[in-house]
Design a protein that fits this description.
The protein is α+β, with helices and mostly antiparallel strands. About 20% of the residues lie in helices and about 25% in strands.
Length: about 500
């Protein structure tokens, strides 16, 4: 692969004097620089990806124009881009299901999968969320990135990187449609801002809907035009711009008892809304933020070409013309920015950061006494090796374990829990644990040695559609529970358990 990693980096003021990077700036906008950085290497659970295509959307343009995300000014240089598609160039330790050369789309949203919103299936509202091109997380407009494999999705042969880069915006659209409860036969109004005739003409060419170009009208007058075009007020309105006039139209143009989904994010903390219209019409008003559990469906729709994204690609730009691509996006031209790779980038300033991984383990007695079931009422106390925590695991010294009816049933019948199947191998009993943390594995945060914790005994994949919807007990890959072969229970001095299943 290339020995350097060319990235499109946004600087608020531009690089300091002497920085060996190539920058272009447009009037009133941030400085986008072509900067060569070290090629990142895939760590545990990660893929190294050679990026092939990245889409540019309105939030990218806003970040480029203002060097700020909402009310937060950009403090440090940031790689742009969050709508990626690329090919696997390297597979990190512990990753399965991917091979070098696979074409993949990447969900740009990172969530912890441990907080309450994540466990409820609302990863978009994660208490610890971050996203590509959102500080401190760099984006994907680069030759190479590394990304968690659980957020990567293989695409079938025949699908192009251009199409794959549309999966992220399609996931957003799906999330909005699901939140708004759109059904066949509904009259649906989509409100936007900064619309021009070219965009409306293109929209009409790829849909069967009507378009209304609003210029110098009151929101009430526009609502009447919408009613005429739709044959009635909208059942559902999707407001996608956060422009005050467009927001007002969305409320006036929606039928009695209808739904208004606010999907646009305003740079202003407060916006006026026609409250009387909302209450008098008993409108169901919802907010929307990013997406959750929609990426798999978006991948399926693109992969099957149930949604054909190919007509949406009208402009492409090489990596070297990043500023030109953003200027075109700011003018409202439809485009997809396609990255071209260089084998060598001369004059680049190589920047790299190294994060040191470490394992912390407390001093402990070198004894791990376990209650092991061999057969009917054949429970033996054995001294087994003390387990050591791996990545994202805690080593726990057990303090208390409850015994319930299923434990007694196993002991009396030597049967697997909830079945009539005999146990095949000796297994440690117990699944109602509480203990104290005595060791931290790699990548664990939020816990310290000495913390008293309880543990959820159910292991699920956390990656299938059912798990992501919050129904971990129905995991599509089969849930594994303490005392269910091959998973030992917790009637022992020490166990290791995933940190995201432990609670202080």
């Amino acid at each position: 692969m290339a020995e350097s990693n060319l990235c499109a980096v946004l600087w608020q003021e531009g690089p300091a004097s002497g920085e060996d990077v190539s920058c272009e700036a447009s009037e009133g906008c941030g400085n986008v620089c072509e900067e060569s950085r070290a090629v990142p290497q895939a760590g545990p659970g990660e893929l190294q990806i050679r990026v092939q295509a990245v889409g540019i959307c309105g939030s990218d343009v806003s970040l480029w124009k203002n060097a700020a995300i909402g009310q937060t000014a950009l403090k440090d240089p940031l790689v742009l881009g969050h709508e990626p598609c690329g090919t696997v160039a390297g597979v990190g330790p512990g990753v399965t299901g991917f091979a070098v050369g696979d074409l993949v789309a990447m969900s740009p949203n990172i969530s912890c999968y441990t907080c309450r919103p994540c466990r409820e299936g609302r990863q978009n509202l994660c208490d610890n969320r971050t996203k590509m091109a959102t500080p401190p997380t760099d984006g994907c407009i680069a030759n190479f990135i590394v990304w968690p494999s659980r957020l990567c999705y293989k695409l079938p042969p025949g699908i192009t990187p251009n199409e794959g880069a549309f999966i992220q915006p399609i996931a957003l659209a799906l999330h909005g449609c699901q939140m708004a409860g759109i059904r066949p036969g509904h009259r649906v109004l989509i409100c936007g801002a900064d619309i021009n005739e070219e965009r409306l003409k293109f929209l009409a060419s790829v849909t069967k809907g009507s378009t209304v170009h609003v210029q110098g009208e009151t929101p009430e007058d526009t609502a009447e035009r919408v009613k005429k075009e739709l044959g009635g007020f909208a059942d559902v309105t999707l407001e996608c711009s956060a422009a005050p006039t467009s927001i007002a139209v969305s409320f006036y143009a929606t039928k009695l008892g209808g739904c208004v989904l606010l999907a646009g994010i305003s740079p202003d903390a407060e916006t006026k809304i026609p409250l009387r219209s909302i209450t008098a019409k008993e409108l169901n008003v919802k907010g929307m933020f990013r997406f959750a559990n929609d990426y798999e469906t978006a991948v399926e729709l693109i992969s099957s070409r149930a949604i054909d994204a190919r007509p949406l690609v009208t402009h492409t730009f090489p990596l070297e013309n990043v500023t030109e691509a953003f200027e075109a996006a700011a003018r409202g031209e439809r485009h997809l920015w396609i990255q071209k790779h260089r084998n060598k980038y001369k004059g680049g300033n190589i920047r790299a950061s190294v994060i040191s991984s470490r394992r912390v383990t407390a001093t402990m007695a070198q004894v791990n006494l376990c209650a092991v079931l061999y057969g009917k009422r054949d429970l033996r106390m054995e001294n087994q090796p003390i387990p050591q925590p791996g990545p994202n695991e805690l080593q726990i010294r057990m303090l208390v374990v409850g015994i319930c009816g299923s434990d007694v049933g196993m002991w009396e019948g030597a049967m697997s829990p909830g079945t009539t199947l005999p146990i095949m191998d000796p297994i440690v009993l117990g699944h109602e644990p509480c203990g104290v943390v005595c060791g931290l594995g790699f990548s664990v945060s939020g816990f310290a040695i000495g913390d008293k914790v309880t543990m959820d005994p159910n292991l699920s994949c956390r990656a299938c559609r059912t798990c992501k919807s919050g129904r971990h007990n129905l995991c599509e890959k089969g849930i594994a529970m303490m005392t269910e072969h091959p998973t030992d229970g917790c009637l022992s001095n020490y166990i290791v358990w995933p940190a995201d299943l432990c609670y202080r």
